[in-house]
Here is the input.
Amino acid sequence: MRFVGLTGGIASGKSTVSAMLRELGAQIIDADVVAREVVEPGQPALAEISARFKGVLGADGRLDRAKLCERIFNDEGEREALKAIINPRIQQAFRDKTRELERAGYDLVIYDAPLLIENRIHEWMNGVILVVAPREVQIARLVARNGLTREQAAARLSSQLPLEEKQQHATWIVDNAFDLAETRKQVERVWRAIQK
Here is the structure.
């Protein structure tokens, strides 16, 4: 089984590129989807999170992500505590999904993960696709998409590893500063290269 990582900065357009790759036939495991699955009601991770971070469950017994984000955003220790709870579960779910795809006859998986490089997952990938966009484009997208102020959007960007540093680990770069047709051309080129 070959593994290719897909990552990018916040609001760089990674989800758009992921959808295009899926349309081309790529088998994609989305780390954000897996992260949501492992904290569903009844999952051990949710009980641990609830015990460690009091008051982060909603009335429906589900994780209130906004409350949890408030607790961990500016506190490295709290972020590390959360990672210690969920990362092993995400890794196990990834292994389970990979085995399912392998049994179905696939030999290539794209792992779509925002923190691929920060969490050093790229080190065991066969290649990395990095989606980039200019900082001003990212800020404008965050303001429009998330209803943030410009200052809040800039703070979110500053909390991530800069795209320039991520580029050092990229095998392929998709520049998503242009229109969708141009992005699609780049994605198709990368997909052909991966298949070789």
Remarks:
- Residues 1-27+107-196 form a domain with the Rossmann fold fold (CATH 3.40.50.300).
